[in-house]
Design a protein that fits this description.
With 263 residues, this protein is of the alpha/beta class. The protein has a single domain, classed as 3-Layer(aba) Sandwich (Rossmann fold). It is built from six helices and ten strands. Helix 4 packs parallel to helix 5.
Length: 263
């Protein structure tokens, strides 16, 4: 007696039965992890063409949580995000929640991010940072939010992601904000609701190494190298020559302070 096997709705087959043809898995509403998922959200160019080609939608997702992981003692925030934040600031304010260092407003303005568009919230605890970010995401004028979260559980992150998704207000004509969460490298092994997760490491003057290890698309074969130069020319010494790393004030955060923190 022969046993007939009915096709599984997800293309899965019982042991001993030949796998279904690729067309059998093209069911509506089913996404295969080795294929690109057509984005349903707008995206803003990152300012790094190499990175844009690796991001679904061709840029940073708007109305979505993007998680950025970095090793201890490295600060590459501005080298990575400044081009997109400067572009987003044309439509509204950019909020920093719990930044590790005070930004140099003159250096940022010289790179296209005016000080009147930049807001900062000093909050020491993760709970306060999450609360401040949640309130900001309810503001229809917000263009971007960057929050530093050394400690965070999946549920608060999921709440931020949900708020970002629902931050488009009908009839306003405003696009959803960018939302970035900087977290320590140890968080890579923990669960996260963020649909886009990157590991970012500084290569000094050689730029940044970026590993896009979670995206709605096929796995990235190898990390990317971004030029992301340090804008040292914005700081000059009294003789009018570009400042060297050793000459940079130790208490200033210049677009990204090189030296000990970003080397």
């Amino acid at each position: 007696m022969r046993t007939a096997h009915l096709p599984h709705p997800l293309g899965l087959q019982p042991p001993g039965v030949a796998a279904a043809s690729p067309s059998a898995t093209n069911w509506p509403g089913v996404w295969r992890g080795d294929a690109w998922l057509a984005p349903t959200y707008p995206a803003l160019a990152s300012g790094h063409p190499v990175l844009d080609r690796a991001l679904p939608g061709g840029g940073w997702p708007q109305g979505q949580l993007t998680e950025l992981l970095h090793p201890a003692g490295q600060h590459a925030e501005w080298r990575l995000l400044l081009p997109a934040l400067a572009l987003a600031a044309r439509s509204g304010p950019v909020l920093l929640v719990g930044p590790p260092h005070s930004p140099n407003l003159h250096a940022l303005a010289a790179q296209g991010l005016p000080s009147e568009r930049l807001w900062r919230v000093d909050a020491d605890t993760p709970a306060h940072r999450l609360w401040a970010t949640e309130q900001a995401l309810r503001c229809p004028d917000l263009a971007a939010a960057v929050v530093w979260l050394p400690l965070a559980q999946p549920e608060p992150l999921r709440r931020l992601h949900t708020l970002a998704q629902s931050s488009v207000h009908a009839g306003t004509g405003l696009s959803a904000p960018l939302l970035f969460a900087w977290r320590p490298l140890a968080a890579r092994s923990t669960a996260s609701p963020a649909p886009l997760r990157l590991q970012v490491e500084s290569l000094g003057l050689q730029g940044l190494r970026v590993d896009v290890f979670k995206r709605r698309g096929p796995p990235l074969e190898r990390p990317l190298t971004l030029a992301a130069p340090l804008p040292l020319h914005q700081l000059v010494n009294p003789l009018g020559q570009p400042a060297t790393w050793a000459e940079l004030p130790a208490n200033r955060h210049v677009v990204d302070r090189p030296g000990r923190l970003a080397a």
